[in-house]
Amino acid sequence: QVQLVESGGGLVQAGGSLRLSCAASGRSIGTYVMGWFRQAPGQEREFVAAISRSGGTYYGDFVKGRFTISRDNAQSTQSTVFLQMSSLNSDDTAVYYCAARLRGSHSYDSANYPYWGQGTQVTVSS
């Protein structure tokens, strides 16, 4: 069973930074592709970033170099995935979700990730 728990969200001023964390646990969790998605009110869930088993990283077009995804596979059954966000603006306000998939490579489609955390709210004030 895979469990994902996000933390690090909060209120930040425009231009500021936040680091989100996703504590992931489960058998061979280090072999999972890990992703971050976000969903603003009234909007569809949107791909933010993903990191592959080998450390390859992928970003949504809107990121434009402002976010960095990384992972720390401390143990075979525990891993932490980070999303460092900078130059935040009001458009980044959303609930941010951590997601995981075992089979296949990274994906921009949320439907391809079977495991999800509960989400963490990020609010950027202008």
Can you put this structure into words, describing what you see?
This protein has strands at residues 3-7, 10-13, 18-25, 33-39, 46-51, 57-59, 67-75, 78-85, 94-101, 115-116, 120-125. The strands form 2 sheets. Strands 2, 4, 5, 6, 9, 10 and 11 form a 7-stranded mixed beta sheet that branches. A 4-stranded antiparallel beta sheet has the order 1-3-8-7, with no helix packed on it. A hairpin with a 5-residue loop joins β5 and β6 (57-59). The chain is globular and about 40 Å long. By secondary structure, the protein is mainly β.
- Main sheet summary: 7 strands, mixed
Report the order of strands and helices: EEEEEEEEEEE
Q: End-to-end distance, in Å?
A: 40 Å
- Computed structural class: mainly beta
CA radius of gyration: 14 Å
What is the β-strand count?
A: 11
Q: Looking at the structure, what is the overall shape?
A: globular
| Total count of helical runs of at least 4 residues | 0
Could you provide a short overview of the structure?
With 126 residues, this protein is mostly beta strands. It has strands at 3-7, 10-13, 18-25, 33-39, 46-51, 57-59, 67-75, 78-85, 94-101, 115-116, 120-125.
